[in-house]
Design goal:
Elements lengths: L4 H5 L5 H25 L16 H4 L8 H35 L71 H21 L10 H6 L2 H8 L2 H15 L2 E2 L4 E2 L10 E3 L6 H11 L3 H16 L10 E4 L6 E3 L13 H18 L2 H19 L20 H31 L13 H19 L28 H15 L8
Antiparallel strand pairs: 1-2, 3-4, 4-5
Helix pairs in contact: 2-15, 4-5, 4-15, 7-8, 8-9, 9-10, 11-12, 11-13, 12-13, 13-14, 13-15
């Protein structure tokens, strides 16, 4: 029973791709359950010889990647709850069917929102404090619409929030609790204390807190996690330079006027904070920053700068220094992938067509480049032919971003159709150049390339995605497993399965 990809992304999986998604989901559950047993509430970063030896909670508590392991844990919390419910429902349906055959009667199928139970979870409550399973998963402004089809796994998932005690994990299925508990521990004992140390906080608070505190709030309703995340959003807003209209990157002296393409992925934290507080300042900062990135990051051919520099006193554009790619003016592939996903998310949050067009332009450029190497991205699309360096992270992020872009294109087409139906004389902008089918096909091409050429599925070894590279001129950290590649690979597969937590909204 397969998630209806078309209803979300405007394109459909083939039977073969659906089978691959189901099988890959099973492998991901096995891989990350084994890693969770070894890693627990430590924070992994780079695996060495199949082991996460460094605990970033001790080495660098403020490191920007420290939200990705909690993000994996929260994604697995939701995914295993969905799968657990589906398994229980299937078993229950099988038992009823057998009973019906014995009685020479055919049982009725479970209706949407049926009170499906198992030994690990209580029945879905039907009181005024409950959210129906057929309606929305997360509560308040952060909700995931689910299908009305009773076979959809999300229709069999009870609200993960405890109606009696907000933030409690005690009622979760045991398979989900095992992932949620270490995620909560990391947030409370490592990530939140970092916010008290100004010098350890930078522009990547969105990466850290969307996947930890905000995820916790959305999934469990923890009021403490919500306050922590709002604190983080306020600190991110404090990095905004109002003259140059950008959010400053990093903290080193001399970089007061620097901003980077990665920052686009942090903007959903600002939009979330505006919705939670009904305060438009956060969203306004995000839009102004994104507009500056749109003007200075994206080149006419769709390639992107990694870093842009401004005079912090006047806001004047100074230049685009070399970043983690090959050289100034080159095309660092991971930066291009951040732009695809980041601008697509900006469109989702604002409906501003300029962001959608930018995401399309960068996506077309990225796919043209990655096609040369069969879906696995080179570290820099303008690097020398030799040595041939890859960065599988870029393919994972781009594959995920293309799904977001597919959803945006579907939404844009529906919006234009509705406006045309209301006003036949409408002079709307032309339709985007790309289609959801194009996005889905290329997302799958990259996923398969990573799976076939860069994944270590041995559950006894840490680190899933290999061939990741930190930066071009750091030979000690090229073609290694890095934890956030795993996060984006996982998120993309779970989105295609229909059981991903939507953590960037």
């Amino acid at each position: 029973m397969t998630f209806d990809v078309h209803s979300t992304f405007g394109a459909q999986l083939t039977d073969g791709e659906s089978t691959w998604i189901n099988e890959t989901t099973d492998r991901l559950v096995e891989k990350f359950a084994a890693e969770r047993e070894r890693v627990g509430a430590q924070i992994p970063y780079i695996a060495h010889d199949g082991r996460y030896e460094e605990n970033m909670a001790e080495v660098f508590p403020g490191w920007w990647v420290n939200g990705f392991w909690p993000g994996i844990l929260w994604q697995m919390t939701v995914a295993t709850a969905c799968l657990d419910r589906t398994s229980a429902a299937n078993a229950d349906h099988t038992d009823h069917a057998a009973h019906g055959r014995a009685a020479n009667t055919a049982p009725d199928p479970p209706s949407a929102g049926a009170n499906v139970t198992d030994t690990n979870t209580a029945p879905i409550p039907h009181g005024s404090n409950a959210t129906p399973a057929t309606g929305m998963l997360f509560g308040r402004s952060e909700r995931v619409h689910v299908s009305d089809h009773p076979a959809d796994p999300k229709d069999l998932l009870a609200n993960l929030r405890d109606a009696e005690q907000s933030g409690s994990l005690a009622h979760l299925p045991s398979c989900s609790f095992a992932f949620a508990a270490p995620a909560r521990e990391i947030e409370e004992t490592v990530l939140y204390p970092v916010l008290a140390d100004y010098e350890r906080v930078d522009h990547d608070l969105g990466f850290v807190w969307l996947l930890s505190g905000v995820a916790d709030w959305r999934i469990t309703g923890s009021p403490t996690a919500r306050i922590h995340a709002l604190h983080a959003a306020t600190m991110l807003a404090g990095r905004f330079n109002p003259v140059g209209r950008f959010i400053r990157a990093w903290n080193e002296p001399g970089r007061e006027g620097w901003a980077i393409v990665d920052s686009l992925m942090n903007m959903p934290l600002m939009f979330w904070a505006s919705r939670e507080t009904n305060d438009p300042r956060f969203a306004a900062i995000a839009r102004m920053h994104a507009d500056t990135m749109l003007r200075t990051i994206v080149r006419p051919d769709g390639s992107c700068n990694h870093i842009v520099q401004f005079d912090p006193e006047t806001g004047e554009f100074v230049g685009a220094p070399a970043g983690q790619g090959y050289a100034e003016g080159s095309s660092w592939s991971r930066g291009q992938s951040w732009a695809i996903y980041g601008f697509a998310l900006m469109y989702r949050h604002t409906g501003d067509r300029r962001y959608l067009d930018a995401a399309c332009r960068v996506a077309r450029y990225f796919v043209e480049q990655v096609t040369v190497t069969g879906g696995l991205a080179r570290l820099d699309f303008r690097q020398p032919d030799e040595p041939l360096y890859y960065d599988a992270i870029a393919s994972c992020v781009a594959a995920d971003g293309l799904l977001e872009l597919a959803r945006a294109l579907k939404e844009c087409a529906e919006r234009q159709s509705e406006e045309t139906a209301v006003d036949d004389t409408s002079t709307d902008e032309p339709a985007p150049a790309l289609t959801p089918d194009w996005c889905l096909a290329n997302s799958l091409t990259m996923l398969h390339a990573v799976d076939d050429r860069a994944c270590d599925w041995d559950a006894d070894r840490d680190g899933l995605v290999q061939l990741c590279s930190v930066e071009y001129h750091d030979p000690e950290r090229i073609h290694i497993p890095i934890v956030y590649a795993d996060y984006f690979f996982l998120e993309t597969v779970l989105r295609l399965k229909g059981i991903a937590a939507d953590l960037w909204w």
